[in-house]
Specification:
Number of helices: 3
Largest sheet: 8 strands, antiparallel
Number of strands: 12
CATH topology: OB fold (Dihydrolipoamide Acetyltransferase, E2P)
Order of helices and strands: HEHEEEEEEEEEEEH
Strand content: 35-45%
Radius of gyration: 18 Å
Shape: globular
Number of domains: 1
Oligomer: single chain
Helix content: 10-25%
CATH architecture: Beta Barrel
CATH class: Mainly Beta
Distance between the termini: 67 Å
Structural class: alpha+beta
Length: 185
């Protein structure tokens, strides 16, 4: 019985891989510059991730992840105390939902996050990172790196496909100044 179950699982593997490859190619992100990220989001914070909790949505059809954040700077919008943002995807038990090109946050890490309210599968009006990996800049020392580095982006209206700061990232103070400048327009 065990050998035949293994054979069935093994025979399904090529189909599963083909489906995952097809769905992986379905994620298409148009390159967003700091101007569009700033004007298109209601809240922008520099924050540290405190903890992460993944769970099934109300219909038990999709996994969501709540991320508790502690802002150190509010660059746009209002926030008081710790905040929760919800991301699509995550792991519950042995089931994982992966969003290709999605934000990837880790407890203890610091980021600049571009946040807005949106409806997620089975969860209305949640604060989230609508721009997926483009709405996350990981802070390393005094530099900020877009999580979209290496993601295939479609050109923006100016024909650019590189992420803000490119492979070298942006000086954190420069990123903050640009965000504040764009939010005051």
């Amino acid at each position: 019985m065990r050998a035949s179950l293994f054979a069935v699982k093994l025979s399904l593997l090529p189909s599963a891989l083909a489906l995952s490859a097809a769905s992986a190619g379905a994620t298409t992100l148009i390159r967003q510059g700091l101007d569009h990220l700033t004007t298109g989001n209601e809240t922008i914070v520099q924050a540290t991730v405190l903890d992460i909790h993944s769970y099934w949505n109300a219909d038990h059809q999709f996994i969501l992840t709540d991320v508790r954040l502690r802002p150190s700077r509010i660059l746009k919008g209002e926030a008081s105390g710790d905040m929760i943002c919800t991301l699509m995807g995550g792991s519950v038990g042995d089931v994982t939902t992966l969003i290709v090109g999605g934000a990837d946050l880790a407890p203890g890490s610091e980021y600049v996050l571009f946040l807005a309210h949106d409806d997620l599968p089975g969860a209305a009006n949640r604060l989230t990172i609508r721009d997926h990996s483009q709405g996350v800049f990981e802070i390393v020392g005094s530099r900020a790196f877009s999580q979209a580095i290496g993601d295939p982006l479609l050109p923006d209206e100016h024909g650019k496909v590189d992420v803000p700061g490119g492979d070298d990232g942006l000086d954190l103070d420069e990123l903050i100044d640009q965000v504040r400048s764009h939010s005051n327009r």
